[in-house]
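In the laboratory, one determines a bound structure by crystallizing the protein with its ligand and collecting diffraction data. In a computational setting the workflow is compressed into a single prediction: the sequence and the ligand go in, and a structural description comes out. We illustrate the idea with iron/sulfur cluster.
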Amino acid sequence: MPKLVIDDREIEVPAGTKVIEAAERLGIMIPRFCYHPALGSVGACRVCAVKFLEGPFKGVQMSCMIDAKDGMVVSTTDEEAVDFRQYVIEWLMLNHPHDCPVCDEGGHCLLQDMTVSGGHGIRRYLGMKRTYRDQNLGPLVQHEMNRCIHCYRCARFYQEFTGYRDLGVMQLGNRTFFGRYQDGTLESPFTGNLSDICPTGVYTDKPSRFFGRRWDYQRIPSLCIHCSLGCHTVASGRYREVVRQEARYSEAVNGYFICDRGRYGFFYASNEGRPRQALVGGKEVPYDQAIREAREKLGELIKNTGPGAVACVSSERSSLETQAMLKRICQKKGWQGPSYFVDGAMAQKVKSASSRLESDLAVSLRELESADSILVVGADPINEAPMLALAMRQAQRSGGKIAVIDPRPVSLPFEFHHLQVTPNEVNLCASLLVKAVVDLGAATDLEQSGIEFYQEIPKLETVAPSLQDQISKVAQEFKESARPIIVCGTETVRQTTPALAADQALLLQATNRQAGLFYLMPGANSFSASLLAGEDGSFTEILEGIENGTIKGLVLVENDPLLHFHDRQRMELALAKLELLVVLDYLNSSTEQRAHIFLPTSTLCEAGGVFINQEGRVQATPRAYLGGTPIAQVSGGNHPPRIYGSEIPGGEPRAGWQVLAELVHGELQPDEDATRSSVLKWLSELDPAFADIPAIDELPDDGIRMSSAEEPSPRFALDWLSEMEKDQSPDDHLELILASRTFGTEELSQYSPPLRKLEKEPAVLMHADDAARLDLSDSDKVAILLDRGALEVSVSVKENIASGIIVMPRHRLLEWQRIESLPKYVSYEDVKKVSS
Amino acid sequence: MLPNELKTSLTEHIASVDHPRELVVDIMFAIQDQFGYLSDEAVEEVAKLLNMSPLEVEELATFYTFIYREPVGKYVIHVCDSVVCWMDGYESIRDHLCNKLGVEMGETTSDGLFTLLPVCCIGYCDRSPAILINKEVYGPLTPEKVEEILAKLREET
Amino acid sequence: MTYPQVLLQNRKPDRIATLEEYQQSGGYQALEDVLHNYSYKDLQKVLIDAVLLGRGGAAFPAGMKLRTVAEDAPFPRYLVCNADEMEPGTFKDRVLIHADPHMLIEGMIIDGYGARAEKGIIFIRPEYESAARILEREIKVAKEAGFLGKKILGSDHSMEIVVHRSGGRYICGEVTAQLNALMGKRPNPQQPPPYPTEKGLWGMPTVLQNVETLANIPHIIRNGVEWYKNLAKTETGAGTKLFCVSGRVNKPGCFELPMGVRLSEIIEVHAGGMPAGSEYKACLPGGASTRYLPKEFYDIEMDFDPMREVGHRLGTGAIMVFDQKTCLVGATLNLTEFFARESCGWCTPCREGLPYIRDLLLRLEEGEGREEFIPMLKQMSKHLWSSYCAFAPGATSPVESLITYFEDEVREHIAQKRCPFK
Ligand SMILES: Cc1cc2nc3c(=O)[nH]c(=O)nc-3n(C[C@H](O)[C@H](O)[C@H](O)COP(=O)(O)O)c2cc1C
Ligand code: SF4
Ligand code: FES
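The predicted complex, in C-alpha cell form:
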C-alpha cells in the first residue's frame, strides 16, 4: 500500500488510489469537475491540478490522473498550482452566463463553489460570450447549454455508464455542444441523474424548475419504493410537498444513481385528488370518529359471526411497521389474514424466493456489478427494476458475460444473449444452460439430492436445434466464470422458478465458483410481506370467504385489489357483497371509493418506514415532512389563506400502523401498539430472522441484510419437471403474459405527471410469426377475447420475443383485469383485427 | 434515399471489413459526394448502415472540416487563412472572391455554384496564397488568377 | 551547394516515380534483404543504431518504438502511417508521396515486419486527395508485384495496406487522436497508459509513424548505419531532412538537405535568399507549434540536438520565414486563431485559454492593448503546458516566444495604440 504525503500529512492508501482520492481521505477536497467516482478520471477539466514536489512525477499535474505512489510529496496549496487552478476557473467563466439568480443550480452549484473558493472574482476577459441554442430534452431534464463548462460528465455518464446512445458531444473546440442529435425526449430511463452529476446548471430538474433553492428545501434521506431494489434517495420538501428527489449514495444498493421512475415517482403524495379526510359512508367526519365507528362496526360483525368474519389485506407498498401491525392484529384477534398479495401464485413465488436466499448466495445490487457472468432467468430489468440493468451494464463493461432467458422482448443497453423461449421453457432452458456450464466431476461438497437433481435435467437434445446452439454458445462463455450470478424474476416465471434458480446457483457454487443469487420481487416490501404472510389466509381464500358469506368485513390497508386482481368483475361483486369495507390508504384508488369507512394514511415521506428489499436488506427512512395539503393547492398560488388554527390543513392522514393500532385500541398491550420500534421487537419474537435488526434509528445507512433462510427450505426439488408438463400451452393458443413497463404500470409512479408523459401508448406485444398468422401488422388494433369480454388494444410486432405468447402490460390505461385465472391461454381465434 | 448502386457498394464495403465503424468517414464522404452535403436524412442513413445512432454519426460529422452539414454550392472554395498565406496576402484573395461572388465567407452564391469557406493550412505553403476548390489546389494566386479560375469554372457548368 | 538526395532522389517535376524507376534506384531490395536476413530484433537494432528519429515532430527514436511492442503482444497488430500533415507550413509528406510513393510503401512493409503488423493504414488528410489516390493505385501495383499480400517474397511476413481518408482536423495528427479517428470515434487524444504499442487500434498493439520517418527505413537497410549517420552534418544527428521553406524567401519549396545544415544556408542558398528589401527577423523553424527563432540563431544547425540545446525545437523542419516588415503580433494572432479553431475541445486550458489569448492578441493588434496583457500572455502560455495533450504547448510556443524575444514589438503596439506595421 503506497504511502504518500499530501500537504505535510502522511497517508497510506490502497494501490490504484488516485491522488485526488487519497487527498479526500485526508479531508482535503481538491477541486474537480470532470472526475466523478463513478465515472472515473479523464483529465479533461484540469481543475484538480496540484504540485508534485517529490516522487515519480514533478511539477503541476492533475491529481485525478495520477495513482498514489510511495514517496510522493504533494502540495495542493503551492502557489503555481493555485495560480493555475485560478486560471482554469477564469477560463471556465469566460463564457458562463452568470445567470445564477435564475439558475436552478444556484446554491448547490459546483462551479459557484469553485469560483469562490478558487479565488476568481473579477472578470478580466473583454470579449463576447459564446452562446448556444438549447434543446428540448423531454419532461424531466431542462437543457441550458450556455452554462456548460465542458466537463464531459453528461456524455460519459450517458454513453459509457448507462449505455444509451442518444446524448453526446458534437462540434469541437469552444463550440463543443452536449445534447441530442435533434430535440426530443431522452431515451434513457436514467436521465434525471444528469441533473445530479452536471456540476453546473446545464441539466436541471425540470419538474421542480424555479421552485426553490437547495437551502429552501427540507432535505431528508429517503428510499425509493417504486420497485423492490430499495435505492437511496434524498427527498426535498417545501411548502408541504416533496418537489424534488435526487439519488443518494449507497455503497450496497444503488451507488450514485437512481432511475427516473424512482426519482420522479413521488408525485402520488401531493396528487390533488388524494383523499385526506376520513370518510364514513362517503361523508367527511373527524378522524377519531371514523376510527371509533370502524371499531364499533367491526366489533358488531365479530359479535354476531365471530372473529373469522373479518379479514385483513395489506400490500407490498406498506411499511414493515404497517404490515407487521396488521399481522399482529390478526394473530391476536383471530381475524383472517393478513394477505399481502392479491395474486396467490405471486405470493408463493416470493415466499419461495425469500426462503431460498441463503446468506452465502445472496448478493447486493452493487456486488452484482463485479460478476463475471450473469444469467437472468425470467426478468426484464429495464421494465421491472431499471437500476438492475445499470448494475448489469457495469458488470458487462468490465468484461462480464450476460444472458437473459425470457420470453419478452427484453432490451438492455449493452450486448447480451437473449434466449427468447416460451414461458414454459424458461426453467428447462436455464437448467440446460447451467448443466452445460457445470462439470459435476469438479463438484465438491454437493449433497446427493443435488447430484440427482443434476442428473434429472433433460438432455440438451430435447430443445430445438437453434436453441441448443445458443445454449452451448452461452455455456462456452460462462464456463470460465468464477463469479457467476443468477438473477431471477418473480413476475412472469412459473411457480417453481425461484427455487430452481437457487438450486442452480448451488450447483455453480458446488463447482468452486463464487456464485450469487439475486431475486426481483414485485414491490418495495415484498420480502417482508412474504415473511409475514402465513400459510393460511391467502387472498383467494379471503375472496372465496366473502363470496360464500363467511367473511363479512374487510380491512384493506394500502392495497387496491381492483387494480391488481386479474378478475375485476369478480372483485367488484365481492366488494359489493361486504357488509363492511374499511380502507386505509393514501391513494384515491377505485377501492377507496367503495369504502364504507375510509381512513387516510400518510405516505413514506410523511411517516417514514422500514422496507426490506429483495435481497433482505432492512432499510429505514425517516419522515421528511409533516404532511398536509401542499400550499400550492391550498392557496392556488396565492398567499396561504389566513384561517386560524393549530392544525395543518390536510394533515389528517396518519401512519398506517398507527391507525391500525388505534383501530384495536385497548386490546393490544400498551407497550406494543404505539411505537415503530415496539413493532420490530414483537417481530423478532414472531420470527427469529428479525432478531438481528437493531432499533430503527440504529440501522446503518445501508441497512442490514437479514437472512430468512437460516434453515433453508428443501433444496433440489424436481417438481419443475412435472410443472412443465402441466403448464404446457394448449395447441393453437397463445399464452398471455402480464408484464411491467418502466412507466405506466407501477402503481405509485402512475400518479406522476412528468412520468405520464413518458408512458408509451399501451400495446400488446407479439412475435412477427404470430402476427403474420393472425394477419396483423405493427400498430394494428385487435380485440382479444378474454374471460370477461373483449379488450381492444393495439399490437406491437417484435422479433426479439418468443412466439406463442402475447405480452400485455398491466398498464393503467388498459383494462386488462378480465382474466378468470392464470396462466391464461388465448386461442388464435380469439385475437381479431379490428377494422378501423 | 440512396441510389441502389451506391447502397449496394457501401453495404458490400461495410461487410468486407472487420470493424465497420472505421468506415464512418468514408461513408459520410461517399454520401456527401452523391448529394453535395450531408443532410439530416443522410446522417440517419449513415447511422443505419453502420448500426450507429444518428447522434453518434453527428458527433463525428460536426467534428470534421470537410463534412458539410448544410447545403453547399457545386464548387466549394476553401480559402487557406493560415500564417504563410496570411503573410502572402490571402486577405486580398478572400476579399476579391467575396466581391466577385457577392457573398461573405461561409455563404453560397444564389445560383448555387460557389460556397466560400475558410480553411486552415492546406499544406501548399510553397504555393501561397492558395485555395482549394473541391479539394483541388490553386496557387500562388493573384486577384487576376482568381477571376480566370472562376470564369473557367462557370464555363464548365 | 548540392547534397546527396536520398528521399527525393527520384523526384520529378510533374509525376511520380514509377515502380520500375523506384526499383532501378534500388527500391525493394531492402525489403528482400530484411525479410530474408533480418530478425525483428535485428531490424529494431539497426533503426536504433541509425538514430532514426521520428520526423512527425516529436523526434522519438523509431527503432525504440518498435521495441516497445512486447514480444508476446497479441495479434493482429497494426502499423499506422501518419500522413495527416496538418502542421502549418509543413508539406514534406505530400512532396514525398508525389515523388516516390513506393519508398513509403516499402518503408511501411519493413516497419510492419519489425512490429509483425499485418495491416498497414495510411491516415491522410482530405486536402491530399491526389496523394491518396496515388497511394491507392501504387499499393495495388506493389501488391501485383508481390510486395504486399500473403507471404511476401516467400517470407513469413504478410501485409496489407489501406488508405484512410480523414475528415480533416489538425488534432487528428496526434497519435492517440488519430487512433480514435481510425476507429470511428471522436478524435480526442487519450493520455497513456495504455500506450498505443500496447493497446492501440481496436485494443491491439499499434505502431504509428510519420511518412518521412518510414521513407528513411529502406535506405538505412540498404546503405547501412554508418552511411546514414554520415549523411548528417552534426555529430549526433543522422540522415537527411526534408525542409519545407515558405514565407519571405525567393524560392519557397521542399528541400532534402543533410540533417544539421545551417538555417542561414537553407534560406540563402537553397530557398533562393530573401527578396530584395527583406531582412530576416525570425522564423518558425519547425511548423506552427515551434518557437520563433530570432536573428541571433540565424546560423544554427538545423538538427534536433542543437535546437534543443538553445531551447528550441526542430519540429517538422517546416521553416516559415518572417522579415522585418512583418508584424509578429499579427502573425501570432493568425497562428492562435488557427489553434483556437482546431482545438479539440477536450480540456479547459486549450479550449478556453486559446480563445482568450487570441482575444488579447487581437486587441493588441487593433491598438486596444494594455500593459497588463503582457504578463497575462506570459502566464497563460506557461499554464497551457498543463493541458491534456501536446497540442496546447505547441499552440503557445509562438505566443510565449513572441513575448520572450519581441516584447518591444508588442509594447510598441500598446504605446502607439495601433499596429506599427500598418
Ligand atoms: C497536435 C498534434 C498534431 C500532430 N500532427 C502530426 C501530423 O500531422 N503528422 C505527423 O506525422 N505527426 C503529427 N504529430 C506528431 C504525432 O503525434 C507523432 O508523434 C508522430 O506522428 C509519430 O511519428 P514519428 O515518430 O515517425 O514522428 C502531431 C502531434 C500533435 C501533438
Ligand atoms: S490540449 Fe486539450 S483541448 Fe487541446 S487538443 Fe489537446 S486535448 Fe484537445
Ligand atoms: S478533475 Fe482532474 S482533470 Fe478534471
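The interface with chain C takes residues 43-47, 49, 60-62, 65, 83-84, 87-88, 91-92, 94-95, 124-127, 149-150, 152, 169, 171-176 of chain A (CB under 8 Å). Keep in mind that any predicted model is a hypothesis to be tested, not a measurement.
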